[in-house]
Amino acid sequence: DFTNIYFYTVLYHALRASNRIAIERGTHFTGFEKSKYASGEFFDKYTEQVWEPKTDKVRQLFADAGIRIPDQDDWRRLKESVAAHGIYNQNLQAVPPTGSISYINHSTSSIHPIVSKVEIRKEGKIGRVYYPAPYMTNDNLEYYQDAYEIGYEKIIDTYAAATQHVDQGLSLTLFFKDTATTRDVNKAQIYAWRKGIKTLYYIRLRQLALEGTEVEGCVSCMP
User: Which DSSP letter does residue 145 get?
Assistant: First the structure.
């Protein structure tokens, strides 16, 4: 629910900003006239149905952050402005892997769940680096589930909710335990296709830890 409304809101503001640039500069991207933006077809699903949080929790999250969720009237006005002036950017959104960058910003890569409560990575000349899951403490660590425990269906469902609002693509990795077979991988690929996923990135298998790198030992050292 959160992912759907978050990317829905980002899309609206990305289009609105691109439309403003087109107005300021008096031009739009090459080929705009033949696009679904120009015909208005792109906007139909946003003007003809209501997009709003389905849960009170998500609605409250946006309210607490002071973020107003666009309604149908907002989209109708934007549709009219785009028809009149166009948009400056042909492409507006893409979600990259953001591996190491995400860790130093207390986040996860792309829009994935955590890979482990404490992930161990080798970073160039630095060597082995330990990354605890964002905001995890001894008081809440039992509530954390990693990508291998969650399973591919819920991860794909989350990406599908975002994909419908993203014009390019999202970096999506599938996570399997070391007992997975090629049949399991194929089932996940078919499930992703049926959900409208545009592309898959990596497939990661959880392997046995090398001596001295067990996650359980790292978790027990959490402050």
Answer: -
Structure-block tokens of residue 159: 């990406």
Q: Which helix (H) or strand (E) holds 45?
A: helix 44-47
On the question of pLDDT at 213 being above 60, the answer is no
pLDDT score recorded for residue 103: 77
Q: For residues 127 and 28, what is the distance between their CA atoms, to the nearest angstrom?
A: 48
CB-based contact 188:156 (threshold 8 Å): yes
- Phi and psi for 122 in degrees, rounded to 5? -100, 120
47-53: which pairs have CB atoms within 8 A and are 24 or more residues apart? 47/72, 47/75, 47/76, 47/79, 51/4, 51/5, 51/8, 52/5, 53/1, 53/2, 53/5
- Output the six-digit token pair for 96: 């990259």
pLDDT of residue 219: 53
The residues, ordered by sequence, that sit 6+ positions from 133 with a Cβ below 8 Å of its Cβ are: 108, 114, 116, 117, 118, 119, 141, 144, 146
Q: pTM of the predicted model, to two decimals? A: 0.88
Query: CB count, 10 Å around CB of 202?
Result: 10
Q: Return all residues near 187 (Cβ < 8 A) that are at least 6 apart.
A: none
- Per-residue pLDDT reduced to its tens digit, 116-158: 998 887 777 888 888 888 899 999 999 999 999 999 999 999 9
User: Is the pLDDT at 211 greater than 50, yes or no?
Assistant: no
Q: CB of 77 within 8 A of CB of 9?
A: no
SS3 state at 61: helix
Instruction: Quote the CA–CA distance of 181 and 141 in Å, as a whole number.
Output: 30
Is a pLDDT exceeding 50 seen at residue 169?
A: yes
Q: Which residues pair with 128 in a beta bridge?
A: 122
